[in-house]
Structures are given as C-alpha cells and as structure tokens.
Design goal:
By secondary structure, this protein is an alpha+beta fold. The chain has six helices and seven strands; from the N terminus they run αααααβββββαββ. Strands 1, 2, 3, 4, 5, 6 and 7 form a seven-stranded mixed sheet that branches. The protein is globular and about 45 Å long.
Length: 210
C-alpha cells in the first residue's frame, strides 16, 4: 500500500486539535476522587492511536494486528517514532474508543442530500457454537436474528445518503428491533426529504418525508 504522508499529516492535525479540546472538556467536568494520580503521557498520543485506527479502515487491511506490525511498525517509523507493542496498542485503543466515537459523530458525518437509506447489519462477536463460552461482551451482547439467521452480538443501525456517505449510526444489542432507533428523534433529526428503509420485509418503503 502506498504511503500518503500528506493525508496522514492532515488527518493527524485535525485529530490532535480535537483530542486537546476533548481532554480539556473531560477534565473540566470530571469529579476527582481526592487521590493523586500519575499522569505520565503514553508513548503514543491519543491522536496517533486514533489516526492509526482510521487509516487501518481506509487502507484495505483485514487484520489490525497485521496492519500495525507489518505496515505501521515497518513503513511508518518516521511518522510514529515512539511505537509500542501490539498488546499495548490494543490497551490504548480501548482508552480512546469514546473519544474516537465522539470525533466520528461530530466531525465526519455527511450532509443529507434529500434521499437517504437506513439498514441494520449484524455485528457478530463470536460463532454461534461459542455463545455460551463467550465472555468479552457478556452482559452487553445479545442473541438476535437477521436475514442470514440467528447470531450473537450487536446491530449497527446505519443511515447513508444517496452517495453512500454516513449520516448517522447507532449500535444496539442484537435483540433490539431494527425499527426501534427510527423512533428516536436524535437518530433522524438531521434527515430531510425521503428516508428509504431496507428493514421492512418484502419491499423498500419511504418512512419519512419532510
């Protein structure tokens, strides 16, 4: 994969500014526990971790571990001079997940063009045979059904415009009805014109008209 350093730097600058403002806001509204904590910075900043995750999805790789070990650690040493092990990167990935979701929601959503589509593809967390042994998402994931049959995990409720750009998204347990998010005002408040649904069995139907 060809390295586009200009693209890396542009996205990093936006992420770095967002991360600084995000952390200031969190610190301002946080309630302390009265204890002194060590705030030693990580070798990889929050912005660098989020940049790697964003570029992973843009790069066509199917395995994050392979991408990090064979691309970031080999071809991007000059861009990320303070690299960490993959296990440590996974820990940092969990740390920035809320921040990354806020960034996507506030900075990356497209504009509604007047024609939109909604669907709820499944997010499987394990094979059906391993449901009883699965512990990572215990208490969060649920059993649900999609057009491909029963599965265990979550649903990604996604709205896109007619150009395939994301307008909004929501993640719910798999047992939540596909139409339930459409009843929530904040999920569809920026959708104008026609919203076509793939959720209604048998046909596609416009469910909202401005």
């Amino acid at each position: 994969m060809q390295l586009d350093e200009k693209k890396f730097m542009e996205i990093f600058f936006i992420l770095d500014e967002f991360s600084k403002n995000f952390n200031k806001t969190i610190k301002k509204h946080s309630v302390g526990d009265g204890k002194r904590h060590c705030n030693k910075p990580n070798r990889l900043s929050d912005a660098e971790v989020m940049l790697i995750l964003i570029m992973f999805h843009d790069g066509g790789y199917g395995c994050l571990k392979h991408y990090y070990a064979n691309y970031i650690c080999v071809h991007c040493k000059h861009l990320f001079p303070r690299q960490v092990s993959y296990n440590r990167f996974v820990e940092l990935e969990r740390k920035v997940m809320l921040q990354l979701c806020c960034f996507v929601k506030t900075c990356l959503m497209a504009e509604c063009s007047g024609v939109s589509y909604v669907d709820s593809p499944p997010l499987r967390v394990c094979r059906n045979q391993r449901i009883l042994q699965h512990k990572v998402f215990k208490g969060f994931a649920e059993r649900g059904k999609c057009s491909m049959g029963w599965f265990y995990g979550f649903k990604l409720h996604l709205i896109i415009n007619d150009r395939g750009e994301i307008l909004n998204f929501m993640i719910t347990p798999a047992n939540v009805d596909d139409r339930e998010p459409l009843k929530q005002h904040r999920f569809v408040e920026k959708i104008a014109g026609l919203l076509f649904s793939l959720l209604l069995r048998g046909s596609q139907a416009g469910i909202k008209s401005a």
